[in-house]
Structure formats: structure tokens, C-alpha cells
Amino acid sequence: MTGFEASRRFAQSLDAADPLAAFRDQFNFPEDRSGRRNIYVCGNSLGLQPKLAAQYVADVMSDWARLGVEGHFKAKRPWLQYHRLAADGFASITGARPEEVVAMNTLTVNLHVLMASFYRPDGKRKKIVIESTAFPSDYYAVTSQIQLHGLDPADCLVEWRPRDDELLYNEDLKDILDEQSDEIALLLLPGVQYYTGQVLDMAELCRLGKDAGCAVGLDLAHAVGNVELNLHEWAPDFAAWCTYKYLNSGPGAVGGAFVHTRHLDGDGTNQLTGWWGNEESTRFRMTRRFEPAAGAERWQLSNPPILALAPVLASLDVFENAGMEGLRAKSVKQTQFLKFLLDDGFTGQIDSITPMDARGCQLSLVITDSALDARGVFKSLEELHVTGDWREPNVIRVAPVPLYNSYEDIYELSVRLKAAIAANEQK
Ligand SMILES: Cc1ncc(COP(=O)(O)O)c(C=O)c1O
Fold first, then answer.
1. Assuming Cys at both sites, which of 270, 291, 314, 376 could form a disulfide with 52, CB separation 3.0 to 4.6 Å?
2. Is the C-beta atom of 194 inside 6 A of ligand 1?
3. 12-21, 93-102, 122-131, 418-427 — which is least confidently predicted?
4. 215-248, pLDDT tens digit by residue?
5. Is 80 exceeded by the pLDDT of residue 2?
């Protein structure tokens, strides 16, 4: 029996010893035609649905039916303060203080709302640094912010480039900052790079930005609910995240934002404003005077979409019960197991470009065997009921998620990956 063959038993023994194993049953899995769960390793794109989410949404629907407008005050979870129910959960998952976080909008919108406050080109300091392989939405957002200030992205957008191994190195960012620090207004950087899965040293990024005198914003789309965060201590100026990936809150669910305590006593003149950012006690006086709410809540614009916020609360309940520390510990083991299987059974065919010493749940698998049709392998995997995700030209991103993926899922992924490769060798 080879190590590879023995691994199913090993995976089963890891599942049997896993204190978080029972959480898997709190999620709905897509199934194949015979009712077997898909091997779902796509939580980096869209997390699975917690069963509890249906209850939270049903509560809102029922309160709306029963109470109409009175639901703002009399609903099971009154809508007037509904967004606040996410604050403790967000704070705990991001290492923030509850007053530093708020559930609002969606990710790109929040990046814009926060850049309106924290990208303030002034004199020579006009530039924004992003990574050159940033998610397109971030690129569009910073480009448009620069243009809205009447500036030219060709002069004001600075790109931190990965090296040949596709990874980002802090020394290269440091070089940029050393050369141009008095011209840089903002660093807008990811916590986890979406393509490679590289976890960046966010504490160090914040320190570098601070030392260079620029504002720092973090896009935590791929980091939140994935790796442990310590936003209050790291002290970026702001951060934003979506909740549909590792936070399992459903497509387009309400996102989250963080603004560090040091910015929370402003008078509301350095930001975009809307009535939900007004202090609750005076919001309904309907005057023209904006009285900022306490904390990050003052960046809210509209009354929140309660139906899109309900699954966020459900998901945060699940996280609170599971605990981020234990989830992260399990995730580290799960990706270690996956890497072992890759090294053991796929040499010369598949490798991971994700650095093992800076990884979260996601490993980005590159098909290294040029004789294989990489896209074909991915298609075959889909036919074998594996849900991962494809990125051109030859990368399959897979993300075992400790809340709902078992070690046996990971083993089964490797079995089906072998079959997908074999199917494409024969073609
Ligand atoms: C890194 C990153 N930034 C921005 C976005 C855009 O998110 P949204 O459509 O919620 O604004 C995504 C979406 O996946 C993302 O991964």
C-alpha cells in the first residue's frame, strides 16, 4: 500500500479526532444526481450556506408580513438596530473593537466610501500604491478615485509587482516607499492575494505605510474568516471585506468595514454622509444638520438591506460557536494534508504556487505538466462533482474550509484530481 492509498484511512482518523467536525452538518452542500455531496472546495469564491441562514431570513420575512413598518421597532431583531448585531462578531473575527466595525454596503462600495475619507491627495502626496495583480474591482476603484480628484492614474497609480514566482515581497514595497514616500497618499493592499492565496504580513504593511506617512487601507475579501486578523493592533486606517466567501453569508450579502479608533471622533465633514450615519437619537428629526453616529457607524449611508444582512448574522453565530482560533488551527492542518497528497502523488503534474509559510485556506494549484490540457483537467474535475475555481492560464484554486470540509473531502479531491488528469492524458 503506498502512502497515497493509505491516506483515506489517515484522513478518516483525522476527521474522527477533529473537534470541529460536527460543524459540517450545519451547512447545505450542493449534491450530485445520486444525492452525494459535491467535493466543495470553493469557499474562496462563495461559501456554503449555513442551515441557520434560512431561519434568520424567514424571521425577517415573517416580521415584515406581521408588522409592516413596525418591524423597525418590534421585529424579533428590530431593524432599526439590526446592523449592530453584526458588530461583536465582526470585531471578534477581525481583531477590532466593536465600535471600529460596521456592517454596510458591499466591498467595492465600501472601498469607495472609505477612500473618499482616506485618499486625500495633498500637495506632492497624490499617489496610491496597489499590487499590480490586484483584483480588477480594486484597480477600477483606485483609478476612478484618482480621476475624480482630477488626477491622472498614469502619474498617480504605483504598482507593487510580484516576482517571477508570482509572490509579493515586502522588500520591493519598501523600495517603492523609500523612493517615493513623500508622494504616496495611500496604500491599498490585500490581506490575502486572491490569485496566489499568499497571506501578506498585514502588520508589516501597516507599519511600512505608517513609517512612510501614508494612509493604509486593507482589502480583506480573502482574509476575513480565513486567517486570524488583529486590525486594532495593526492599525490600518481602514479596511473592508465581503461576507460571501469565508463568511458564508450568501451572494452579494452585506459587507463589512473597519475604521481605526484614531479616526472615530471626526465631525463628519471628511466623509460621504447619509442619514443612517447620523446619530440614531436625532436621525428622525429630519433636520439638515448631520450629527455623526458614534464609531464606524457614521460611515453608513442608507438604511441597511435587512434581508441581505440576515445571513451575515446567522453566519457570525456559527463562527462564534466554532471560534476563529480553532478554525485556523484546523485549516493549517488541512492545507498541510493537501500539500502532502500533492507532493506524494502529483510530482511533475501539479504544484501549489501558494507559499506554505504564508497560506490561508486556499492553495492555488498550477498544472505544471505542459502535455496536459489544464482547462480540460478542470472541466473533468467539474464532471466528477468537484467544485473548485479556475483562473487562466493554468491555475485551479481550491480552498478546504475548516467549518465544512472534512479531511476525507481533501483526500477525495486528490483521488478525483488523479482521475481528471488520467481522463485528459487519454484524450
Ligand atoms: C479581492 C477582491 N476585491 C474586490 C472584490 C469585489 O467584491 P464586490 O463585488 O463585493 O464589490 C472581490 C470579489 O471577489 C475580491 O475578491
1. 314
2. yes
3. 418-427
4. 999 999 999 999 999 999 999 999 999 999 999 9
5. no
pLDDT digits (tens, 9 = 90+) for 364-380: 999 999 889 999 999 99
Q: Measured from the CA of 244, which atom of ligand 1 is nearest? A: 10
Read off the DSSP letter of residue 288. S
* Domains assigned to the chain: 3-37+324-426 (3.90.1150.10), 55-321 (3.40.640.10)
Residue nearest to atom 16 of ligand 1 (CA): 221
Predicted TM-score (pTM) of the model is: 0.97
Are 313 and 250 in contact, with CB atoms under 8 Å apart?
Answer: no
Ligand 1 atom with least separation from CA of 106: 10
- Ligand 1 proximity of 219 Cβ (cutoff 6 Å): yes
71: its cell numbers = 418591524
Which residue bears the cell 468537484? 386
Pick from 188, 208, 190, 206: which is nearest to 198 by CA?
190
Beta-carbon count within 10 A of 357 CB: 7
Q: What is the pLDDT of residue 33?
A: 86
Joined grid coordinates for residue 211: 513609517
Distance from residue 6's CA to the centre of ligand 1 (Å): 39
| Rounded Cα gap, residues 258 and 24, in angstroms | 29
407 ligand 1 Cβ < 6 A = no
CA 409/CA 89 separation, integer angstroms: 28
* Cα(208) to centroid(ligand 1), Å: 24
What strands, in cross-sheet order, belong to the sheet with 256-259?
A: 101-103, 256-259, 238-241, 215-219, 184-190, 127-131, 157-160
297 touches ligand 1 (CB under 6 Å)? no
* Ligand 1 atom 4, closest CA: 137
